[in-house]
Amino acid sequence: MLLDPEKTLFVRGAPPVLLLAGAPVHDALPLLAAPDGAVPVCEGWSILPRLTLCVVDGPGDHGLVVPALTAPVHGAAGGSAAPGGMPDWCEDAERAGGAVVLSLDHLPDPCAWPALLTSGTTRGGFLRTPD
Question: What is the C-alpha separation between 89 and 1, in angstroms, rounded?
Fold first, then answer.
């Protein structure tokens, strides 16, 4: 499945975060339970971050592709959420060995991190990059 880059937000950090809105894999991802801020690993899921495409792969037929080159990246130059920071986000993911992927109904303010972890409706967790 191809997910429109306008339904994503890549957030730089350690670890980096990929926010998905209305993703077809939403119900397949585990419900997030991280009240203490420790995001659990999503077993059976992986992420392959690349400059032009980002692949989220799950068990069975679950997965999606994001055209990453045109996707917004929060924490890019100037702190904006604009296209252009994908090389840095990919480097963040490489250093972290993966990324936190969170699936929601709609994209929130990226500063609402604590609310995402305790909302009771967010799905996802840390996805490792393949070996």
Answer: 22
Residue corresponding to tokens 């989220």: 56
Which of 9, 20, 24 is closest to 125 using CA atoms?
20
Banded pLDDT at 76 (limits 50, 70, 90) = low
pLDDT score recorded for residue 33: 82
Residue type, 111: C
CB 47 within 8 A of CB 101: yes
Cα distances (Å, whole numbers) of residue 12 to 20, 25, 28, 60, 62: 15, 22, 25, 29, 25
Q: Is 60 exposed, middle or buried (0-12, 13-18, 19+ CB in 10 A)?
A: exposed
Q: Using DSSP bridges, classify how beta strands 123-128 and 41-49 pair: parallel, antiparallel or unpaired.
A: parallel
Does the pLDDT of residue 16 top 80, yes or no?
A: yes
* H helical segments located in the chain: 86-96, 113-118
SS3 state at 89: helix
Q: What is the pTM of this model?
A: 0.90
What does the pLDDT average to over 100-110?
Answer: 86
User: Which residues are paired to 81 by β-bridges?
Assistant: 74
